[in-house]
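One thing: can you check what follows?
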Amino acid sequence: MTEQNTTPDAPKKTVQKGDTVDVVTLIPVYPQVGRRPWPVGTKMAIPKYRADLWVARKIARVARDGEQPAPNTLQAASMPPAPDMKAPPATQG
């Protein structure tokens, strides 16, 4: 499966294989390290397997037919970019 990564202003919309599902974010979603999150209320099309995971974990909900996105851009503007990922500390065992 190939996906395109874009900025928080334009969530990825291109998926080459499989069905997509329109979802609306319930929490801010960081697309990658160093970028600001997609705000709550962002509507995007994502692969069905990811939509199932996000809905089960309450990250997003399935969008209603004809629903317009209503992102909370003020909240997203105040959130810092995602920090760099660090390896977990070595455990002694």
